[in-house]
Amino acid sequence: MKLLAVRRLFRIQRVVIRYRLDDLLFALPLPWFLLAVRYVLPWRWFPRKPLTLTRGARLRLALQDLGPIFIKFGQILSTRRDLLPEDIADELMLLQDRVPPFDSQVAVKLIEEQLGKKISEVFSRFDIEPLASASVAQVHAAQLKSGEEVVVKVIRPGLKPIIGQDLAWLFILARAAEHFSADARLLHPVDVVQDYEKTIYDELDLLREAANASQLKRNFEGSQLLYVPQVYWDWCRPKVLVMERIYGIQVTDLATLADQRTDMKMLAERGVEIFFTQVFRDSFFHADMHPGNIFVSTVNPWSPQYIAIDCGIVGSLTPEDQDYLARNLFAFFKRDYRRVAQLHIDSGWVPAETKLNEFEAAIRTVCEPIFEKPLKDISFGQVLMRLFQTARRFNMEVQPQLVLLQKTLLNIEGLGRQLYPDLDLWNTAQPFLERWMRERVSPKTLLGNLQSQVEQLPHLANMTRDLLERMSQPHAKDTAAPWHKRKDDWFLRLLGSGHLAGGAVLAAGGPLNELGHWPAGIMVAVGVYLIVRR
To answer: Which pTM was predicted?
Structure first.
């Protein structure tokens, strides 16, 4: 273990002692053997001066002192007011955009080093006092020489060593959990930490954030749902980002939203629609949707539009993951729990020997109580407990590639509770998902899939023929003329290509193809035979 990682552990211990976080922990209703631990902690053997800080302030300041990874954990918690006492939730909200800034002169120096120019050469105005400050960067308002109002985002100095030390301890804990606990192995903690390591380091590259913002802006160009600020690429560097300054209301500023008579029901419903659009239509979703990154436009409050900033963390899904999730959600909305259970078994999320009837009954027990209820009447704590019990009973495995999606869902659900607690999440999401699934099998989509498959046919036919010939005649010399020079079988080969294309289109039918993929398999097999036959 690196010496720096050991030093980091002592640093964490000092912060815990300074802010008396152990007092907060032992105030919880813990088992007796955990409560007994307090008697062996040396710093609790001596009298300590009482703190004047509230418990929420102590937790916030501790997370703030410990750095980016802990601050991001606090940001996630801040969106779950249903799970936290109000005083703690209010304090953790300050971690979203009010982390103490670093020295502005240091920020100016970093910006000038990255741009290779003096501040005065690039900006006609630059505000020394930061506009906002968060875990990874801080933002200054400015105006370009050409007149555009912008914000300048600059990465905090010295973050990589701290992040590296925290990740080292996360890996140690993850490996220990996998070694000692069968339940932990189902969660794949090492894979989860590896994915998080990539995510947090990617966030330190502002060129990647600029590219993400540009892509998200193109995806919602002209949309009434979401607006993404423009990126000024001429002044973007790995540690500096310059983009359009937006003016909006922070999504959790409910009083101001109410003053301008914002349609809160529509705002909440559009939040759900934006999420499903990003995940299923684009397979490119904003994965850091805490309230500090989400604003509401002041234009047309009766038809509210979201504004998204800070695209440093985005997620995407493979077509296989999209298809799997869509099938599950569609079956879930129809309350077809048997289909949900079968999909879990088919995908390998639970062992193949799992008894379908028992698994179906367990899923029904978890899911049925939350239907046809508004968010305010759903106890997600109970739902999570039942999900964990089900996962343990049936050896269900967590998929690390979906961790970002699950994190985003937590943010969306927490935000929905604040905006419009009467929102019926399922009835809001179901029409969008059904529409998306219909579009998957529309003539336009099928033609697009057909075109991409046809483009691959010559290459696929050659590869398949060569492979089959080598398998049937492993020792024979290839003396036959090239297949494209033989004229007599052109019609049959063309017919075979048509079968291949038809099979590809049928396989692309997606979630609505409830017959399965055996017809597509037959068509592909016939097509291959007609193409490669001698």
So the answer is: 0.72
